[in-house]
Amino acid sequence: xxxxxxxxxxxxxxxxxxxxNSPGFQNGRGSSTSSSSVTGETVAMVHSPPPTRLTHPLIRxxxxxxxxxxxxxxxPDHSMIQIFSFxxxxxxCRCARVCRRWYNLAWDPRLWRTIRLTGETINVDRxxxxxxxxxxxxxxxxxxxxxxxxxxxxxxxxxxxxxxIAQCCPELxxxxxxGCYNISNEAVFDVVSLCPNLEHLDVSGCSKVTxxxxxxxxxxxxxxxxxxxxxxxxxxxxDCFVLEDEGLHTIAAHxxxxxxxxxxxxxxxxxxxxxxxxxxxxxxxxLSVSDCRFVSDFGMREIAKLESxxxxxxxxxxxxxxxxxxxxxxxxxxxxxxxxxxxxxxxxDHGVEYLAKNCTKLKSLDIGKCPLVSDTGLEFLALxxxxxxxxxxxxxxxxxxxxxxxxxxxxxxxxxxxxxxCEVSVDALRFVKRHCKRCIIEHTNPAFF
Length: 449
What we know:
449 residues, alpha/beta, Monooxygenase, Leucine-rich repeat, LRR (right-handed beta-alpha superhelix), globular, F-box/LRR-repeat protein 7, ubl conjugation pathway, mitosis, cytoplasm, F-box-like_dom_sf
C-alpha cells in the first residue's frame, strides 16, 4: 500500500494540463486537485490518495449506498479502458485521481500512445515534462509507448517542450505542432534527429521554421550511407512564410521518402525550389503549392516528372499558371484524382479539354474563378470524366445552365457541385438534382431550394 500511495502522489494533476479557470477544467469534478496562481502560472497541489476505510457509521452507510448506485464500477477493466481511450489528455489525468482502480486503469500503457493538448493558455512545456516523467517510470528516461504528440494552437510551447519530446520519446511517429509560432529550427532538428521513426510532421503556422534537417551532431554520428536520410513521409509546412528555395532544397535532400507535402502560402517558393524537390523526392503522391504566386508553367513541368505517382495537386491562386502548365500535368500525370486550380485565370477551355482527355479518372476538380472556362470545357469533362464526384465552378462567369445539364446527364456519381455566383437558371439546377440524386448543390439562386 505504501508503494501504491507514493505512485498515486506522483500522478500529474489536471491543473498542470489546463489552468483551473479554463473551460476544459471547469467541466466535470475538480475536487481531487486544488491549485493556486503564482506569477501567472498554475501551481498544482497534489492531494494524498483517498482513505481506504471510513470509520464513521453514517459515512459508511452513505458510501455503501453510493457504491450501489455507481454502476460504472461494475464494468470490467477492458471496458473502462475502452471508455478512457476517448478522453483527452487532461481528462485522463483527472480520472487517475478518482480512486486506486481508476489510477491503475488510467495509466495503462495502451492509453498513452497519444498526447493531445490544445489551447493558448496551457503551459505545454511543463505539461510535457510532467507527463513524460510519469510515463518513463517503468523505463527510466525513455518513453517507449508514446507514438503521437498533437499540440495545436499553443503559444506557450517553446523549444524546451520539443526538446523534452526529442529526449524521452525515441519511438515517436507523429508530431503535430500547428500554430505554435514560438518553436524554431533547432528544436525541430532535435526531434527529427533523435526520433528516427518519425513519419508525420505538421509544422503549419510555425513561422520561424525555415528548414527540416538533422542536427550536425546526428549527421556526424550516423553512417555516410544514411547520415542525411529522414524517414518523414508526411510534411505540412503551410503558412511557413519564410521558407525559401534553399530551405526546400535542404528538405528535399534529407526527406527523400516524402509522399505528402503541403506548401500552402509559402510565398517565397519559386519554380527553382520545385526543381530541387523533384530531383530528390520522386515518390510524392500529394502536393500543394496553393497561393505560391511565383510558381509558373515551368514549375508544372517539374511537377509533371512525378508522372503516374501524382494523385493530388493543388495550385490554387497561382496566377502564373496557364493552359501550358495544365498540359504538362495532363500529359504525364494520367492517374491524377484531385486538382484544385481555383483562381488560375490563365486556364481556358483548351486546358480543361486536354485535362479531361488524359486524366479520365479525375474525381475532384476545382476550376472556380477561371473566367475563360465555359460550357465547352464542361462538355469535355462530361464526355470523358464519368467518375467525377466533386466539381467547383464558383464565380465562373462563362458557365450557363446548358453546361451543367451536360455534366449532370453524364456524371451520375456527382456528389458536390458548387455554382455560387454563376448565372444559371433554376431549371438547370433542378435538372442536376433530378439526375444526380446524391448531389449537394451550393448556389446563390434564392429561387432554388
